[in-house]
């Protein structure tokens, strides 16, 4: 049964200016520059640079007027561009060069992808046109690491449907072998084991370490990846020293042969810090990146339009429409300028609170000096909402004398020690990392033993918590950290 009723609700809605500020708060410096550039292109009433005083404006207008009058008076002289007495081309050439003289020219740098390199190598091989076509198809299906991740059957189906070329698995396998014989060694493999074995096949097997390394990959690959070295020595009946030499040969191999070409390597991302903290004796000095505080102003020409309309004795409909457009653009520019200024103030206020809260760490650089800190702690200090602090900490970097760090890494939960003292979880992770770095790699510490190490230092942490922190630090389990 449908029923109609009247209800009263109290809702809080954000204004467009508040929404704009929230969006600007969470963007880092590089994105802010792009956002300002977009706003400058979209809004002609917004301009860059410092404000000009009235005298400067009058002088600039006078100079523009005088320059325009001067241009009108001047006539274009075509005689400057017409010359009947052209110099013959032979008079402009020199013939005093020696035959032995080196030609000094700047070469153009060029690079090719590893797939283009493989296709070029195919042209040097004595193979049929069909084999070359199938090999090029396989090369086109290689990923950036140089692996063939697709099934050969699927490639055969693609050739049949897209190019009407009928082939079978056996013929494609033969073409794949051709690709696997190209350089770099290991390219065209379907998994890591095959990639490493292809590289070892090109080495001299008369050396015992090479033949043993090949046998390890061929017959004991699973035990090798899980670092069950005792099983390998037992199965192959070799001592630990010989096994160590063989494994050193495997470690030298390239697991990603496709990336050996510089053109396939990923670009390096440069970090632009939003804040810079420096030390002055026992004091800390905070500065914000100048890119976060651009000089923006209302365009002078748009101000003149408003003044011109105000002084105009007659105001028709078109002038009113133009005035509404100008007012809209100027209001939008004012909102954007205010939002940028408010963003700068909020960033400085929040970062200053974080710096004071973690002052001992910023003065010493010792991670064990980090205090437990959550968003609520800073929000209460600066009297802002937690969501605002979260936006400030998002994707922002701070440059310190000890390195450049992501701002949100300074926020951590607290743990209570045996003495009742609250410490940061980051402090515990630092102790955990040091314990792993200094362990005996032949007998690495298990999670239970790591928990015991922390308990001895006064941190009552369960084994599963240690496992969680270890995963957050990207530390593998003890079995995978084992070395001979």
What does this structure look like?
The strands form 3 sheets. The chain has a 4-stranded mixed beta sheet with strand order 3-2-5-6. It has 3 domains: 116-262, no CATH class; 275-409, no CATH class; 413-481, Homeodomain-like (Arc Repressor Mutant, subunit A, Orthogonal Bundle). Mean pLDDT is 79; it is low at 102-110 and 262-267. The chain starts with 15 loop residues before the first helix and ends in a 12-residue tail after the last helix. Helix content is 50%, strand content 7%. It has helices at 16-25, 29-42, 54-73, 114-122, 129-140, 152-162, 169-180, 192-201, 208-219, 221-225, 229-236, 240-251, 300-311, 317-357, 359-364, 375-382, 386-393, 425-437, 447-456, 463-472, and strands at 46-48, 275-280, 283-288, 296-298, 397-400, 403-406, 414-416, 422-424. The protein has 484 residues and is an alpha+beta fold.
Describe the SSE topology.
Layout (H helix, E strand, L loop, with lengths): L15 H10 L3 H14 L3 E3 L5 H20 L40 H9 L6 H12 L11 H11 L6 H12 L11 H10 L6 H12 L1 H5 L3 H8 L3 H12 L23 E6 L2 E6 L7 E3 L1 H12 L5 H41 L1 H6 L10 H8 L3 H8 L3 E4 L2 E4 L7 E3 L5 E3 H13 L9 H10 L6 H10 L12
Parallel strand pairs: 2-5
Antiparallel strand pairs: 1-4, 2-3, 5-6, 7-8
Helix pairs in contact: 1-14, 4-5, 5-7, 8-9, 9-12, 13-14, 14-16, 16-17, 19-20
**Structural class of the helices, strands and pairings?**
alpha+beta
Q: How many domains make up the 3D coordinates?
A: 3
Total beta strands: 8
Question: How much is the average pLDDT?
Answer: 79
* Uncertain parts: 102-110, 262-267
User: Helices and strands, in N-to-C order?
Assistant: HHEHHHHHHHHHHEEEHHHHHEEEEHHH
> Shape, please?
extended
Strand order of the largest sheet: 3-2-5-6
Count of helical stretches: 20
Query: How does the major sheet shape up?
Result: 4 strands, mixed
Radius of gyration: 35 Å
Query: What gap, in angstroms, lies between the N and C termini?
Result: 77 Å
Estimate the strand proportion. Answer: 5-15%
Estimate percent helicity.
40-55%
């Amino acid at each position: 049964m449908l029923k109609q009723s009247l209800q009263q609700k109290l809702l809080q809605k954000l204004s467009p200016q508040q929404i704009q500020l929230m969006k600007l708060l969470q963007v880092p410096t590089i994105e802010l520059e792009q956002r300002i550039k977009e706003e400058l292109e979209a809004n002609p009433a917004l301009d860059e640079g410092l404000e000009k005083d009235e005298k400067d404006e009058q002088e600039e207008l006078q100079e523009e007027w005088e320059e325009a009058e001067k241009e009108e008076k001047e006539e274009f002289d075509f005689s400057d561009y017409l010359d009947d007495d052209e110099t013959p081309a032979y008079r402009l050439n020199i013939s005093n060069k020696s035959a032995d003289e080196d030609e000094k020219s700047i070469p153009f740098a060029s690079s090719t992808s590893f797939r283009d390199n493989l296709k070029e190598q195919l042209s040097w091989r004595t193979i049929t046109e069909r084999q070359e076509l199938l090999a090029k198809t396989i090369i086109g299906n290689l990923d950036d690491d140089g692996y063939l991740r697709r099934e050969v059957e699927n490639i055969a189906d693609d050739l049949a449907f897209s190019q009407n070329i009928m082939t079978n698995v056996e013929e494609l396998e033969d073409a794949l072998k051709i690709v696997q014989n190209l350089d770099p060694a290991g390219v065209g493999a379907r998994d890591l084991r095959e990639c490493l074995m292809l590289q070892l096949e090109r080495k001299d097997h008369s050396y015992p370490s090479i033949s043993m390394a090949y046998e390890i990959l061929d017959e004991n690959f699973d035990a090798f990846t899980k670092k069950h070295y005792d099983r390998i020595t037992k199965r192959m009946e070799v001592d630990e020293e010989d096994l160590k030499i063989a494994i050193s040969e495997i470690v030298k191999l390239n697991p990603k042969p496709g990336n050996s070409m510089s053109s396939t390597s990923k670009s390096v991302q440069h970090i632009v810090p939003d804040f810079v903290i420096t030390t002055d004796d026992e004091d800390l000095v905070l500065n914000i990146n100048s890119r976060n505080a651009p000089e923006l102003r209302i365009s002078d020409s748009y101000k003149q339009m408003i003044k011109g309309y105000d002084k105009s004795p007659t105001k028709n409909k078109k002038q009113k429409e133009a005035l509404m457009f100008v007012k809209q653009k100027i209001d939008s520019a004012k909102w954007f300028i205010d939002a940028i200024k408010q963003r700068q103030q909020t960033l400085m206020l929040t970062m200053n609170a974080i710096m004071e809260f973690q002052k001992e760490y910023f003065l010493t650089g010792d991670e064990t000096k980090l205090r437990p800190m959550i968003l609520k702690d800073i929000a209460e200090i600066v009297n802002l909402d937690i969501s605002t602090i979260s936006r400030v900490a998002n994707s922002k970097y701070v440059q310190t004398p000890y390195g450049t760090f992501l701002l949100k890494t300074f926020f951590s939960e607290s743990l209570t020690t045996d003495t009742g003292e609250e410490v940061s979880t980051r402090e515990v992770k630092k102790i955990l990392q040091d314990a792993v770095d200094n362990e005996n790699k032949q007998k690495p510490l298990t999670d239970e033993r790591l928990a015991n190490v922390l308990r001895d230092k006064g941190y009552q942490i369960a084994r599963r918590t240690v496992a969680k922190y270890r995963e957050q630090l990207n530390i593998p389990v003890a079995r995978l950290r084992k070395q001979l």
